[in-house]
Amino acid sequence: MTNKKDRNEWVSGIKAIVLAIIIALFLRTFIFATSIVEGESMAPTLENGERVIFNKVVYMLDEPDRGDIVIIRQPPKNYVKRIIGLPGEEIEIKDHQLYINGDAYTQSFLSKDALYSTSNFGPIIIPEENYFVMGDNRLISKDSRNGLGYIPKEDIIGKSELIIYPFNELGLTH
Questions:
Q1: Contact status, residue 74 vs residue 155, Cβ threshold 8 Å
Q2: Which of 63, 82, 150, 173 would give a disulfide with 160, using CB separation of 3.0 to 4.6 Å?
Q3: How many CB atoms lie within 10 A of CB 18?
Q4: What is the pLDDT of residues 55-71, one digit of tens each?
Q5: Which among 12, 77, 81, 141 is annotated as catalytic?
């Protein structure tokens, strides 16, 4: 009797482990994934070496919005950037001020150094189904101004949600 009970407990334990692995693989494949921030282009919001969890489903249900920190697929690597301009908008940077459709836009997420290191750019009109992105560290960021170009919606693979490493930085990304 004890052998059968022990075997049933083992089988139940193995089933629970297999189910947990299947659920974890499903979540990792279809819902959430992790990415490592490489470089200083998003500093001080995100620092080199931080690991973030990003939501892969959010843009299947909704459109990317200004201010979202997104993961962009551009082989051979992914980039982490902030959405600044939406499809059809006019973007211009003049005298360190960002203008969207002719209106000054306050960038409260930037440090003073980043604000005053942003050189003149544009004006440009963002094509439909594309986005304009920039890093928060504008002086050194490779972004829509200087190498990445417009970002097609299908290249935006997720929205950064949470810093998970290092543990002292644990928290939501803004």
A1: yes
A2: 173
A3: 10
A4: 988 998 899 999 999 99
A5: 81
| Residue 81 known to be catalytic | yes
State residue 33's pLDDT score. Answer: 81
C-alpha closest to that of 73 among 154, 173, 149: 154
Q: How much is the average pLDDT of 75-79?
A: 89
Between the CA of residue 109 and those of 60, 82, 119, what are the distances in Å? Answer: 26, 10, 18
Q: Is residue 12 among the annotated active site residues?
A: no
Q: How far is CA 168 from the centre of its chain?
A: 20
Average pLDDT over residues 6-28: 80
What pLDDT, on a 0 to 100 scale, did the predictor assign at position 17?
A: 87
Omega prior to 76 cis, within 30 of 0: yes
In the set 5, 35, 41, 111, the catalytic residue is: 41
* Domain limits, the chain: 32-172
More confident site: 113 or 122: 122
**Of 82, 98, 95, 91, nearest to 41 (Cα)?**
82
Per 3-state DSSP, the chain is made up of helix, strand and coil in percentages (nearest 5) of 25, 35, 40
For 142-166, the pLDDT digits (tens) are 999 998 999 999 999 999 988 886 6
pTM metric for this prediction:
0.81
Residue entry with tokens 């005053």: 116
Which residue has tokens 């050189």?
Answer: 119
